[in-house]
Amino acid sequence: MKENKKADMMNIYQLDGRVPLGRAIPFGLQHVLAMFVSNLAPIIIVAGAVKLDSGQTAMLVQNAMVVAGIASLIQLYPVWRIGARLPIIMGVSFTFVTILCYVGITYGYPTVIGAVLVGGCIEGCLGLLAKYWKWIIAPIVAASVVTTIGFSLLVVGAASFGGGMGSPDIGSPTNLLLGTVTLLGCLFFNIFAKSYWKQLSVLFGLVVGYLLACILGMVDLSGFATAGFISIPRILPFMPEFNVGAIVSVTIIFLVSATETIGDTSAMTIMGLNREITEKEISGSLACDGFSSSISSLFGCLPVTSFSQNVGLIAMTKVVNRFTIMTGAACMILAGLFPPVGVFFASLPAAVLGGCTIMMFGSIVISGVQMLTRCGFTQRNIIIASLSIGIGVGFTQVPELFTIFPTLVREVFANNCVAVTFVISILLNLILPQNMEIAALGSEEKKTV
Known about the structure:
The chain has 20 helices and two strands. The chain is mainly alpha-helical.
């Protein structure tokens, strides 16, 4: 009996297998806590930009939690060919925020919903046909994009550590104390905990940070006063409207998001399963990304995609069991159905999340570097990676460089380093000779080779 219990517990490091529910829930909950605020932030940003009222925004926040849980379940337990059968957590994507703010302000929020509906179907169909075009996304392209995703998230983690981007008290001593204590809680628990308990270091850090935040009076629980006990998500709260320009613009970003998904899932299989991703998994993950985004639009929400911070969490913990991760997806759905649960999760101070995520985001950079290493440092790969990452990360730090381009191009690329890296790496991969080292040799040297 004791040996069976031990075997069940070790299944958390296997894709399939039975894990006791009481032990699976904490690991699944860890994934929810790692991405909860990031899942809601894009909705809040876009809703604010298009001037939705507080009631509409609250309804969309609730729907976003339900949609993220449903999309995660589809990734874990595929429907037909839709889903990768991998421990991938889905959430509302930050990648689309800039372009959807532009579309929403210019054409209205119903046009945003229409563009997401169509763009998601396009990505979903492309995912099902991935075997015909995935060669364009060469390993060096995916590696460059993953590395850039990591660098872009470091800013998010650092801003959260200080209290949150745009917060009036960002960098205050209280926020820095809270972030530091949370980070130290994660580190000390990882150092001193025994056996599989080490993998709950992020959850432990969140609990420590949250308790300290309560003591310091930094937790706002006023939402409990107005939150009902149960609420059913609304279907089609906004009737979609269709604009060709908006659809084209959003579809371009869906292609960028597809590259992020390939990079995330590739990093997850390499870091969590110690193998390369398969063609079937690429196709399933992209199809889930696209069609789940279309489902999301029916709930009035933005596109969903794989979450890099959860890939980073898997890289740290090596917990890849699908049933265990499924408990986290179930928690998200419950959070959407029961407003008090959502209020509790949403009350986590940004500094607490920053203390837990800064190392996780750094692990995404390391995953990208490991992917680059697996590609090999040939002259061709070095040029593709260095130029695409250099231009992607560097140019977007100086958005004035994009002022000569049309407004739509600026909105898509000026502040989106992942999009720029994607385009540059794709172009270089298509243009540069496959055997640059041989091409550079003289005729006599070529004969020798």
